[in-house]
Known about the structure:
Layout: H1 2-7, H2 12-16, E1 28-36, E2 41-48, E3 53-58, H3 64-69, E4 75-77, E5 85-87, H4 88-111, E6 116-122, H5 124-140, E7 145-149, H6 157-166, E8 170-175, E9 196-199, E10 206-209, H7 232-237, H8 241-244
Parallel strand pairs: 3-6, 6-7, 7-8, 8-9
Antiparallel strand pairs: 1-2, 2-3, 4-5, 9-10
Helix pairs in contact: 4-5
Amino acid sequence: MGYLSGAAYETSTSIEAWSCSYCHHYNVTDVKVFSNAIGGIQGFTAFSHSLNAVLVVFRGSSNIQNWILNIGTTRSSYSLCSGCSVHTGFSGGYNLVASAVKTAVQNLKAKYRGSKLFVTGHSLGGALAILCTADLKSVFGTVDLTYTFGQPRVGNQAFADWYEATHPTTFRLVDYADIVTHLPPSNLGFVHNNNQIWYQRGMQSYQICSPESPSCANSIGTTNYSTDDHNLDNYIKLKTFTESN
């Protein structure tokens, strides 16, 4: 899934031609890019014959330093669950492309009947993948697998509890001291969803932890948070959770 997330950072032309540097790792067809220049959102849908799965992939921010500085901390109400609120910017970003994503998924599901549905994304793309997973499940009834890499917190405690209870096949991978996984701050009411797969230094071993476990990512002091650990190349090179599960 990491290579797919990497492909989402390429130009729309190379993605749709499936000729990007990360593309050769997956044999896919029916590739279609969705984007919104105003919101800086980009991703693609495709079909993997080897996985028998419709794929929805979201790009992260193209400038992580600026994105961190401007991430914002406001939340808006969320209609799919009672008492839930989610990050206003993430929700607004997903809404800019939601219609295009659902249309593309509907077309692929109609073409490849009985196929699975996988969603993934890195960084901001991970947050969008969470909101997309919830939306797609409400429309299509199920999402078979969601993987996020270096995902920020998306919503409040009510959202985290609801999402974890209703979307158990979501896995949130964290590279050691990745700074983005600590944003937006928990003291402002943001809470992570689903179990985290937390990798120690060297990315060869991991722990499966509760969302806000003090023994995993939250054991890292704020002065040790790292933008280097957020690099997608780290997530691509790790001994992946998917390889052992």
